[in-house]
Amino acid sequence: MGWTEVPTMTASRDQLPLFRSSRTPLLADRQNDLRPPVRLSEAARAYCAYLVERDRAEHTVRSTTLDLAGLVEHLGDMELAQLSAEMLQSHLHWLQTSRNNHTSSLRRKIASLKGLFRHVQGSGWLATDPAATLVYPPPHRLSIVALRPAEEAAAIAATSDPLWLALVLLFLDCGLKRDEVLALRAEDVLLGQNTESSLISVRRAAHAQRARVRALRVTERLRTALTALLGSPLPGRQVVDLSVRGVNFVVETIGHRAGLTRVPTLTPEILRDTFAVRSMADYLERERRLVDQRATPRTLAKARAQHDHELLEALGLSRQSDGPARYRRAAEELRAEATGVGRPDH
Prior knowledge:
It is a single chain. Helix content is 52%, strand content 3%. Strand 1 (189-190) and strand 2 (199-202) form a beta hairpin. Residues 1-32 have low confidence and may be disordered. Strands 1-2-3 form a 3-stranded antiparallel beta sheet, with no helix packed on it. It has 2 domains: 1-140, Tyrosine recombinase, N-terminal domain (DNA polymerase, domain 1, Orthogonal Bundle); 149-339, hpI Integrase, Chain A (Orthogonal Bundle). The protein has 346 residues and is mainly alpha-helical.
């Protein structure tokens, strides 16, 4: 088909590798092109170029390009006017049964299809959107695994040098994502004389997606670890000078050294979830005090909403995330395990 090469975000605006020709006009120049896309591959190329022009993340452009290439490969390069919702549904069924795509992959590919055909309809290339009726399968959510307090202490004790300690605490005490940790630079870390004057600015992610910009408070133990690690930091210096595989190796090694038999493989996600569950446990304790003080249902609901919002902000998650509800359940289960009492009412 000749269009599956993935564009990079650093490509010249006058030359998009997504296209066949060595020089392709800018999207703005296409207003002079009286011939709209007729075939599926043409519409897919135009949509992916549109994503590049809108400065979408490189990961998004790459995955969308591959998803739509698979659509053309399966259905054939048919005319747009021939496409129907049933054809798109049959494509998804084929992905699930013949290609063994799991729920997360199907959800992403449905998003790619919906994005393409919203653009197709919005551009006037089709009168209707054949992807409008596609339904996302419910996300498959594994149970949250968070370290118990004794396991958390053992993991910290198992760190063998300042870099390993700072790495673990960036997950445990700030709840950063791995990509955010790898993107941290010395100038993103403000270390004062105490925790009140110390901050970490999350401004970027290393690889897949853009980070949600936010400023995070630093615990005393993290402040001490970062001070020992950075010394006299130079601007531009990477705080954690490791690769993705290096981070995974360090965290997994720490888990083995700590003897975490309940958690066969320690991961950055488990450490980040531990931060989230611990934070939610603190929020739940505040809410229980409100109940003891006979706060009104409205006051309690407002407090819960505020706590959910604060946790989403700290973790860099969108307002649509179901994270708070999942972390609430995990925190309640951890408390029930620790106290030997049943889970409190929601």
